[in-house]
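Hey, can you fold this?
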Amino acid sequence: MNLTIDFTGGVSAEVRFPRAVNVDEVRTRLSAAGFPRAAVQNFGSSRDIAIRLPPDPKQTATEIRARLEAALTGIDPAAQVAQLDVVGPQVGASCG
């Protein structure tokens, strides 16, 4: 049995703010910072934001984190990127 799942991959980030944050404001800031296709939603509480970004093979995870932090600290200087994961474009498995 072969199993291959193809998807576009991308970046998944969890951001924590010290106060409730407006999801639309986060989208606007990210778009202005060069992330026009960011998917943004609350998770857990109104202070926790999940962000999904399309893949950018020209950027390292460190560079993406720095750009996200720069954009989001404009909303609140205490905003923190708590987790950032870069997911590759293909997952595959092969079973005998």
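Oh, and this one too while you're at it.
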Amino acid sequence: MDYGDRSLFSLLAYGDTVFGDEILHGLWLTIQVAVCSYALGFCFGLAGAGAKLSGKKWLMRIGDFYTTVIRALPELLLLLLLYYTGTGQLKAMLLGLGLVDETFDVSPFAAAVVSLGFIEGAYLTEVLRGAIQSVPKGQLEAGRAYGMPFFLRFRRILFPQMIRYALPGMGNIWLNATKDSSYISVLGAFTDLLKSGSMAASATKHYLFFYSTIAGAFLALSIVSMITFYLLERRVNRGVRRV
């Protein structure tokens, strides 16, 4: 189809011959992947921080190995390794246990989320470890003296204060998560924001316009994210005297 006689912004309308709906769908998929992988990465981060602070050598070594290896390797390489080898190994294991048959396929979305979450968890591990160490130990010891079980101490004492210290670092990692979600475009199973913009640019030959549009969408997402984390930091720091 000849797009030469169309205005550039008309190409962002809805319809079968234009690309606005594809780009919005790609943006929504990017946000879904970023949110789900970040939430899972937070869980990995909590587990990793707990392992490194457990005082048990074997747990500390696992935590050190996890953060060292993940942070040392390129994220795109890790994503490819985890996505392709991880899904293959999982299917082979389930087949061996007789839980699935040969027609079973791991959900590409779930595989991408778990892979990205595992990578982000290594960075969140260090952020959360530092935040946990910043919480006054005397408060935790007082809770233990009052007979509070571990999960109650975690919910009422450790977690609220840990989040206050961790939010700045968590905000930076969230911004990375929104950008890292564009890596899924190389997996071939997703039409995310970057992929949809690339397809539109290839079809129309308006590369500068569509790549600038995608850059603007990522910039807008980052600005909204920064405002959100700023408001969250103000909320969790209520009543805290600033030096």
